[in-house]
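Standup, Tuesday
Yesterday: got the pipeline producing structure tokens again.
Today: sanity-check two examples.
Blockers: none.

Example 1:
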Amino acid sequence: MQKAPNNEEVLEVISQSDLLKKNAAEIKKEIIVGIDEDWSVAYNLLFDNQNQYLKSKVNACLSFEEFKTVSDREGLNNQRLLIINKPIYFDNNNFALVKIAFYRNIEHNSGSFLLLEKVNGIWVIKDYLNQWAT
């Protein structure tokens, strides 16, 4: 359950926001294409004591290659894949930028970068950047 790395697409997103431009140097340091980190701790923490109904709706985390194998084996057009890139924290960890993409093996794929702000200890979506849909 590896975190998806950030890439040069982040540079395009920086140009769309004054806040990101102001913090560009800090954000650019977090573009590490070869990261090797996983979501296991955060994923397990989410479901350890709560969110049991949500857990029943979420399958095990798979790599893209594993997802394709399952999708091809099942032969159904209802398989879904959610990719969450490694969050980029900046401005003393008060803001975060994270790319989220939602794919189905049929049409209606979408994604965007979420600009998040920590307000009273809770992450709030401040803006959607570089949105796309098919």
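Example 2:
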Amino acid sequence: MSEYRAIYKCRLCGEEFYNAGTSDEDTASKVTMYTVLESSGITPQFESRNAPIQFDLHNCKDGSYGMADFQGMKKVGDSDG
């Protein structure tokens, strides 16, 4: 089964990580668009309390704290089960 993960990339150290996911393709596409539109100041009709946020805090391996940007919903796993 496939999963879509909310991917973030730290501006400070460059590490990519995820903090949320869904197995529903429609939800993954809608929350990606919602997050992009919201960051542009547009309020889309689709709203979800569970949608990824545009930025996240990252605790880097060296102990630093960086700002991470939402990259999108990455599909992982086997699509045919």
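Quick observation on example 2: Residues 25-39 form the longest helix (15 residues). The chain is about 20% helix and 40% strand.
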